[in-house]
Amino acid sequence: MGIQCTRQYVLTRNADLRSSPGGAVIAYGITGDKFNVPSASGTWYPGNLYDQYNTHLGYGYLLASSLAYTGVCF
Question: Is 45 within 8 Å of 37 (Cβ atoms)?
Fold first, then answer.
């Protein structure tokens, strides 16, 4: 059994937080926002989006290509 953690990513470009992969837009993420991902796999990552002031913008899906891993795991 490996260590499970939530990985923190940062948006490298503006991206839409969606209700499902390719689904309805929940929130608009901007470059520099944080995205906490409990399970990173596939093209779309599920997780919680936070702005640069740590305000929770919602839970949904972002394209993996718009994210960069920060190295933070909690």
Answer: yes
